[in-house]
Amino acid sequence: MSLLSRYHELGVEVDPSFRPRPALRVNVLRVSEVEFLRVMRRKGVVLEPIPGVPHGFWYESSFSLGATPEFLLGWYYLQEAASQVPPLVLAPVAGDCVLDMAAAPGSKTSQLAQLMSDDGVVVALDADRNRLASLRNNLERLGVSCVVSYKKDARFAHDLGLSFDKVLLDAPCSGNFCVEQDFFSKRSVADVKQRARLQKELLRSAYRVLKRGGVLVYSTCSLEPEEDEAIVDWFLKEFPDVSLSESGVSLGEPGLTSAFGRSFDQSLSLTRRFWPSRAGTQGFFVARLVKG
Predict the structure, then answer these.
(1) Does 173 participate in catalysis according to the annotation?
(2) Which of 118, 154, 167, 183 could disulfide-link to 101, CB 3.0 to 4.6 Å?
(3) DSSP per residue over 148-170, as a string?
């Protein structure tokens, strides 16, 4: 069965040509939202607030927003709407010690710092040296100072000798048809299952470094249940002291409690799933987990 045909079995119509609206996040560490809106609207940029996403806007522009003085000054970050949800679900506050397990190029890392008012510590890991350079460049542009970055495979995060109040695992995944051309001709169910093995290893590592009472957000830009609900269902069984909690966001819709003849823990309905045709964003999945 192809990946596309499986969506029909889940009762979802998919338009492979769909592309999400471009979006950005105002960086209030550099500029007030009021000033940002005043300047950008004067330039002719059309901005529409993303419901339930503070400082997030869809935009229309006749010129590239990646090449403006305001972009270079760090006033905003070009970040797709659904991508802005996982840090909001994690909800870090000033003074927290946070781990970002797959940080580069820095969209969610910088958003975590912004939510913390750049007060606390974000430990950002990435195994790719070039991507880590992009992360550091972005953080400098955005005026973020609370991030400590390491070139490191997050499966071995315990080597740092630290424990964390909150952990974000925006996991490496198979992606989705909105962000990758010819996705359905390049991906197979076997690819999905292979990626799921890595996701389990990363979740084991996240559990090991998360404090009791701490929060873990697991997210992917994949629409495949094997990388989303099935992974979280496995995690709940593997670590019985972990439970799902409300995401606190209204975007998306409840996660699946069954797929392809397999039933999941009923608490999977607390996760959020973003079907592009319904949410108007790229495909995404977000789960908020608490360690008891």
Answers:
(1) no
(2) 154
(3) EEEE--GGGGGGG---EEEEEEE
